[in-house]
Amino acid sequence: MKTEHPAGNLQKKFDFSPPQPRPFMANLPATIDTYEEGVARFFQWRTGLDYYHTIDQVVDFAVNTGRVKVIDLLADTATFALRLAARKAFDGRIYSFDTNVTLLERAKQRSAHLSLQQFIEFRHLREPQFPVADGFGELAVSFFDLHRHHAEQYLAEILRILVPDGHLILAELLTPKAAQRSLPWLMKKMHLRYIQKNPAEAGAVYYDQEELIQLLFNAGFRQVIIQGLNAPESRYAGVFSLIAATK
């Protein structure tokens, strides 16, 4: 699963900038056009990585599993779901969830605009339980979202909705506990809370590698693989990683 394959011939290129004159976004608030740009900027500030390139690496990882019934655990900008659906190597269906109905409407309109609606079903989620049966999906993907959840409850729910031998892909920032007690880390949390006015991210809980592996094993997963996507800039920085686990 660690093998990376060139995606240049498979990846359809999309322009994710605000459409002009926004014909398929006409019924949504104008501020929704700037949301994805803000998400991409925040992701780069938080991880040091390019948002779209990182999502493409997650898409590569997902395609390489060969699984065709995919649960996108957080639609958000819908970039992951749309890019996976556009891959010629992917011959399956994606079920993408979000608690935000405005973002879901945006995602539905964009998928229709890109003629991908037959591959993706966007569904509203009222946490903490996903509205699907036990063993619903073959592959579950969580992109930079685990840190916002109660890990034990979140992983137990993911385990429930996966088939036996199903896979989970987590894309998450792994941070040593010593770094989380450092002054730079605390300053960053203060910046999130008081400058960016983002208390949800300021109060997020991150895990180091060994701690996350133990959480996955305790939940009932096995065969955990971790692939770091960057090198830490300092001993106070985390490593954004792809974590694959099998039920």
Kindly report the CATH topology.
Rossmann fold
Summed up, the domain count is: 1
Per DSSP, what share of the residues sits in E-state strands of 2 or more residues? Answer: 15-25%
Which ranges are low-confidence, i.e. pLDDT below 50, for 5 or more consecutive residues? 1-25
Give the overall shape: globular
Order of helices and strands: HHEHEHEEHEHHHHEE
DSSP summary, beta strand count: 7
Helicity range: 25-40%
What can you tell me about this protein's structure?
With 247 residues, the protein is an alpha/beta fold. It has one domain (41-246): Rossmann fold (3-Layer(aba) Sandwich). 38% of the residues lie in helices and 20% in strands. It is built from 9 helices and 7 strands. The protein has helices at 32-47, 51-65, 79-86, 101-113, 151-161, 177-180, 183-195, 199-202, 209-219; strands at residues 69-72, 93-98, 120-124, 137-143, 162-174, 222-228, 239-246. The protein has a 7-stranded mixed β-sheet with strand order 3-2-1-4-5-7-6, sandwiched between helices. Helix 3 links the parallel strand 1 and strand 2 (93-98). Helix 2 (51-65) packs across helix 3 (79-86) and helix 5 (151-161) packs across helix 9 (209-219). The chain starts with 31 loop residues before the first helix and ends with a strand. The model is unreliable at 1-25 (pLDDT under 50).
Name the descriptors.
Rossmann fold, 247 residues, globular, alpha/beta, disordered N terminus, 9 helices
